[in-house]
Amino acid sequence: MSLEVTGLEVAYGRTRAVRGLTLRVEPGEIVTVLGANGAGKTSLLRALQGAVKPAGGQIVYNGHDLTGQGAAARVRAGIALVPEGRQIFVSMTVHENLLMGGYLRGDDKLNRDVEAIYDRFPNLASRRDMRASVLSGGEQQMLAVGRALVARPSLVMLDEPSLGLSPLFVERLFGLIREINAEGLSILLVEQNTHMALETATRGYVLELGQVTREGPAERLAADASMAEAYLGGGADPAPAPA
Ligand SMILES: Nc1ncnc2c1ncn2[C@@H]1O[C@H](COP(=O)(O)OP(=O)(O)OP(=O)(O)O)[C@@H](O)[C@H]1O
Ligand SMILES: [Mg+2]
Fold first, then answer.
1. Domain spans in the chain, listed from the N-terminal domain onward
2. C-alpha angle 117/185/239, rounded to 5°?
3. Are 61 and 136 in contact (CB under 8 A)?
4. Which domain of life is it from (predicted)?
5. pLDDT tens digits along 48-89
6. Residue 212 C-alpha to ligand 1 middle, in angstroms?
7. Which fold has domain 3-231?
8. Which residues form ligand 1's pocket by a CB distance below 6 Å?
9. pLDDT for residue 224
């Protein structure tokens, strides 16, 4: 897969949330997008997901122009989102949540792929018929990732997946991201946990007021001591709450 975003504009009325953003994800990459609250990170992902219509620019995936296409077309093209705040259906069972990830699939391999998710996440397997509300925050994040994987994506976008997780679950989450990347999926990772994100990613972009202010190899951004303070509002990783 390859994703090429050129000159993307997202606006809500007079608020320009994303301004002339150009970004790419090459096959096999983990690319991170960093930025403070309100920088436009979620707006970028929602435009890529097809949930908001860009006010300008172009989104090309595997050579196909998806700019004017809706959310279903994005899923079919292989783009899956693990949304901000997880957005688990808490009144549904774990199993039903996973099936939702495959709602656009017309093939008969869905059950097999859901079983593969249970192999990967034994905590979900043992709770498959329970309501998702019984899961801890960390387990809900795993469920959100599992639900995205059920769509058989080639690109997984994650919106601040580590937010609110205990340090143990943050470690497991970033391990999981590396694992699915090693299995061939490309990753677009939005984070405020700058340290972990740059340790995991190959390249990164810094967003400030909707614009890319820095980009480059993750090691170079991580070594840039001025970056955290100047662009990320102090640079300290937010203290994680218990999962
Ligand atoms: N639905 C909306 N309607 C109007 N303005 C919005 C809407 N969603 C976001 N915004 C505004 O767009 C800008 C970018 O918001 P966005 O949620 O994309 O930022 P973010 O980087 O994801 O922030 P956070 O770290 O808090 O999640 C902000 O000024 C925000 O107030
Ligand atoms: Mg956001």
1. 3-231
2. 75
3. no
4. Bacteria
5. 999 999 999 999 999 999 999 999 999 999 999 999 999 999
6. 16
7. Rossmann fold (3.40.50)
8. 12, 15, 17, 35, 37-43, 84
9. 81
HEC string for the chain: CCEEEEEEEEEECCEEEEEEEEEEECCCCEEEEEECCCCCHHHHHHHHHCCCCCCEEEEEECCEECCCCCHHHHHHHCEEEECCCCCCCCCCEHHHHHHHCCCCCCCCCHHHHHHHHHHHCHHHHCCCCCEHHHCCHHHHHHHHHHHHHHCCCCEEEEECCCCCCCHHHHHHHHHHHHHHHHCCCEEEEEECCHHHHHHHCCEEEEEECCEEEEEEEHHHHHHCHHHHHHHCCCCCCCCCCCC
Calculate how far, in angstroms, residue 205's C-alpha sits from the geometric centre of ligand 1: 17
- pLDDT of residue 218 exceeding 90, the answer is yes
Sign of dihedral through CA atoms 115, 120, 126, 132? negative
Residue 40 Cα: closest atom of ligand 1: 18
Structure tokens at 4: 């090429």
Residue of 18, 43, 48 to mutate, ligand 1, most atoms within 8 A of C-beta: 43
94/86 Cα distance (integer angstroms)? 13
Q: Whose CA is nearest to atom 4 of ligand 1?
A: 12
Q: Which amino acid is at 132?
A: A
